[in-house]
Amino acid sequence: MNPLDAEAIVIGAGPAGLAAAHALAMRGVKRVSVIDRDDEAGGLPRFCRHLGFGWEYTRRLETGPGLARRLLHALDPSRVTVMTRATALAIHPGPEVEIVSPDAGHVRARPRTVILATGIRERPRSARLVPGRRPEHGILSTGQLQQMVARGVAVGGKRAVIVGTEHVAFSVLLTARHAGLRIVAMVEPQDRVMSYAGAGWFARALGVPIHLSSAIDDIKGSERVESIALRGKNGSTTLPCDTVIFTGDFVPESALLHASDIDVDRLTGGPMVDQFGRTGASGVFAAGNLLRAVESSGMAAIEGDRVGANAAAYIQGSLGWNGGAAHVSLGDGLAYLVPQRWAPVENRAIHAQSLPISLRATADARGRIRLSQHGRELWTSGPLRLRRQRRIKISPAIFANLTDGAPAALTVSAP
Ligand SMILES: Cc1cc2nc3c(=O)[nH]c(=O)nc-3n(C[C@H](O)[C@H](O)[C@H](O)COP(=O)(O)OP(=O)(O)OC[C@H]3O[C@@H](n4cnc5c(N)ncnc54)[C@H](O)[C@@H]3O)c2cc1C
Q1: Ligand 1 pocket, residues with Cβ under 6 angstroms
Q2: Residue 249: what pLDDT?
Q3: Which of 283, 299, 320 is a domain's end point?
Q4: What pLDDT shows up at residue 329?
Q5: Residues 140, 242: one domain?
Q6: How much is the pLDDT for 56?
Q7: Whose CA is nearest to atom 30 of ligand 1?
Q8: What is the residue range of 220's domain?
Q9: CA of 89 to the centre of ligand 1 (A)
Q10: Are residues 115 and 14 in the same domain?
């Protein structure tokens, strides 16, 4: 099959895109193409050799490359073509996808549906306003470290400090140790470990101290990092080190959205979608970490699977295209919600195909979450302990209470 002559084009061959392609093929779509700008399919997990990938989707204990292989091998080659070194440049109405690849050149494909699954990118140090010198060597982002380790390139240092304590930071801890670095400390501006408490215990059990409520005041060194100065609750400390790894500052890889005139949510930096993963552009869906940074690979695959099924239903005419959807705005204390829009549906069973809810708080707090529309309260949670950077678990079924496409609101109130 000519990969560009497809009924469905999935952009991004990470867990979300591969699971979406699988779901499309399993539901009878015969010509599915997955394109990825990288040399190999598999997305970010390809670069993380430690265990802990895909659990929610596969219920297996797997490494990143193991999950990538499993998702690729699950694809039926008679229906799904994977094309690497192919970059999507823009989506035009139709939908029409503008693609560049060394094999195909600069082409436009006209599938029935497009699924965007382009994942995340990392913000550079300059965007994080970190003071100090800019030594030539020894300052790395998560992605740079991963790629060096995966490609067997020597990191060059011996003693590293990891800046950040969210889930990804502990993956970095394992990858850096695998690369032969001794982790001299982890640094966190907040007063607690942002990942689960167990992750902090694990790091400390490995002999890695965690400096909480601490910020970098200075990075010293000209050719290579020599030390960092920290400002914390108890004054200033200098940590000798030759490598600083910044983690956790991820944003959706949204370049394609901006080139395509697809609505972007100011809060997530990803596309606005409804519960079926539909963006505002006809026939264009989105799934995975592009929706918001960052959930686990298993969650990205579940989203891909559901959105792939919905896109197949759209091709087959069983998922109507109804412009009306209630936009859910957020009150103080809530950082973002995905999906942002909820289309009214008559058959409540269809909510089983909804995207899982990604809802996060801006700060640690206790409270109840309320959903209202037309000034009426439609649902109230029990008392909740909200934790910054953690997903708040609520069921998509509560949004079935929305009566029509009028604006709705989620707010936090006292417990
Ligand atoms: C350092 C680190 C450690 C992590 N550790 C874990 C862990 O231990 N366990 C876990 O479950 N999850 C972990 N994650 C999260 C996990 O990697 C992601 O949840 C998962 O990869 C998201 O899948 P995705 O398909 O949405 O995006 P990705 O895996 O990022 O895939 C997106 C793909 O889109 C391609 N792409 C982007 N733009 C274009 C374009 N314009 N044209 C063509 N192709 C394009 C990219 O090349 C990429 O292959 C970690 C993430 C990081 C950064």
Answers
A1: 11-17, 35-38, 43-45, 48, 52-53, 87-88, 117-120, 142, 146, 168, 171-172, 253, 256, 288-289, 294-298, 300
A2: 81
A3: 320
A4: 96
A5: yes
A6: 95
A7: 119
A8: 124-246
A9: 19
A10: yes
Q: Which residue has the tokens 């496409």?
A: 405
Residues of the chain under the 50 pLDDT cut: none
Residue 3 lies in a domain: no
- Which CATH number fits the domain that encloses residue 96? 3.50.50.60
Same domain assignment for residues 241 and 130: yes
Residue with tokens 């990092």: 225
Query: For ligand 1, atom 52, which residue shows the shortest CA distance?
Result: 168
Q: Do residue 341 and residue 316 come from a single domain?
A: no
* Nearest-atom index, ligand 1, CA of 17: 25
Examine the domain organization and report whether 264 and 242 are in the same domain.
Answer: no
The answer as to whether 2 is a domain residue is no
Q: Please give the number of the atom of ligand 1 that sits closest to the Cα of 35.
A: 43
For residues 192 and 264, membership in a common domain is answered with: no
Residues 89 and 18 in one domain: yes
β partners of residue 411: 370
> Per the domain annotation, does 409 fall within a domain?
yes
pTM for the whole structure: 0.93
State the pLDDT at residue 390.
85
The reported pLDDT for the residue numbered 248 is 77
CA of 66 relative to ligand 1 center, distance in Å: 14
Last residue in a domain, options 246, 270, 285: 246
Question: Which atom in ligand 1 lies closest to the alpha carbon of residue 86?
Answer: 43
pLDDT of residue 234: 81
The number of domains in the chain is: 3
What pLDDT, on a 0 to 100 scale, did the predictor assign at position 133? 66
Residues 145-197: tens digit of each pLDDT = 988 988 888 888 999 999 999 999 999 999 999 889 999 999 999 999 999 88
pLDDT of residue 126: 61
The Å distance, Cα 220 to ligand 1 centre, comes to 32
Residues 6 or more apart from 214 whose CB is under 8 A from it? 187, 188, 189, 230, 231, 232, 233, 237
